[in-house]
């Protein structure tokens, strides 16, 4: 798969040659906009930690909000805010829009739910298409894994939504960051006890790791601890995963991350 991307890398040699003082110039300014649900949002997801990984010249805007799906993010006018930003992007060499949904598109989420085939997949593709139409670079992100175990094995509750995201990215020739696959592998390798340390709060009231029913129920009331949202440790871990996927999919983005 190939992507048509904006030329944003300034070589060190060119920078030195164009700088009277001989000091390397920073790359041309870019902007990154985060669009998604609570697993990317401030206070419960990895989005702010990802923004913190960029160098100071990058304008990173976290517009992800808890409880949103591919339908409600648009219906509430939040996507219109993204479009407004894209129309006003002349100050930036490129604007990358990272889009991640799935958790609230699942059945059991009331009006937030979307049909996997006729709703979720087309919605993700439409976000990518509209981003390109306004001069942005769409970057689709597969949903962050829930850390729900059954015994010693992680229960994958978001696999079909991850696959639908992959297909939407292929359809629109958009960059894809497979956070789902990466987070599934990492959390399974950790096991339930270590995975619990990634949560927002300690698991004092959580079921025992040996409990075969240690699975988060979609739509159930949330306490301070759950198997979906992340605290600082989890945010840092998953932000690094997104960074690795981002730089692999779009190598020209690497100079914009702190080394």
From TrEMBL:
GO terms for molecular function: hydrolase activity, acting on ester bonds. Residues 35-182 form the SGNH hydrolase-type esterase domain. Pfam families: Lipase_GDSL_2. SUPFAM superfamilies: SGNH hydrolase. Residues 1-23 form the signal peptide. InterPro entries: RhgT-like, SGNH_hydro, SGNH_hydro_sf. Keywords: Hydrolase, Signal. PANTHER family: PUTATIVE (AFU_ORTHOLOGUE AFUA_2G17250)-RELATED, RHAMNOGALACTURONAN ACETYLESTERASE. Belongs to the 'GDSL' lipolytic enzyme family. This is Rhamnogalacturonan acetylesterase. It comes from Massilia forsythiae.
